[in-house]
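As agreed, record minuted below.
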Amino acid sequence: MFSVVVIASFAVAPLALAHDPAEHSKDAVASEKAVTGEIVDMMCYVDHNAVGAEHGQSCGSKCIKNGGPVGIVENGKAYLVVGEHKPMNDELADSCGKTITLKGKLAERGGIALLENAEIVKK
């Protein structure tokens, strides 16, 4: 029995060593980007495409103030927005439904686009 386990271990070991760590980040190439678009509450946006000033200043801003995820939509592409290791809900809640510019590091993985370390660009 012991020899079977040893032989199996040697057979499987090369598979573990063959793993390429860079494989994890192939679709997560990060770059700096400025995004100009509408601030949205991601729950309502993804669930029922809620956009616009009317929704933003009623339901959207409340959802963001209550901790819902915040995003920005530019030309139909949605980005989840986070600050430097923290949410930006307090800074962006009152901008829900409005068009603003954010800049930050863009990363994408598994179909999700993220704008991280985001900063509001003043006009």
